[in-house]
Amino acid sequence: MDYSQITDALFIGTTPEMDDYDALRTLEVRLIINMRAEHRLPPDPHTPPLAILWLRTHDIPLLPIPMRALRRGVDAALTTMARGGKVYAHCAAGAHRSVVMGAAILIAQGYSADEAARWIKQCRPRADPDTWYIRWRIRRFAAMWKNHR
Fold this sequence. Notes:
Layout: E1 3-7, E2 10-13, H1 21-26, E3 29-36, E4 51-57, H2 67-82, E5 86-90, H3 97-108, H4 113-123, H5 132-148
Parallel strand pairs: 2-5, 3-4, 3-5
Antiparallel strand pairs: 1-2
Helix pairs in contact: 2-3, 3-4, 3-5
């Protein structure tokens, strides 16, 4: 598991394995947001288990990440954070889909789309928020969030 801490309560990275759940628990992560359509995470066998939100999305320009999926992830993340928990958003490489989710969470916390993308890139150099279809989704979420809160 390769991850980067973006804020005190937000991490972005690659797909965790069940063996990584203890490390996530040590980081005080309470919610894992899985952005991979092709990979379901195994349930956490611990009590209480880490919450896992599976938002089946693709890293393909022709299948953009749905705004409703981003909104579900943001709502779950904000609820988790309000209760003192931390959030781990992941995709296969921790470079595209998880970056969009991380940026959406930052936007919901008051960042602009460009600020969120820049901050994530600074904290996670392998993140690629400047790929056209990734940047487009980040900006689209920002516009939706501003108009429909």
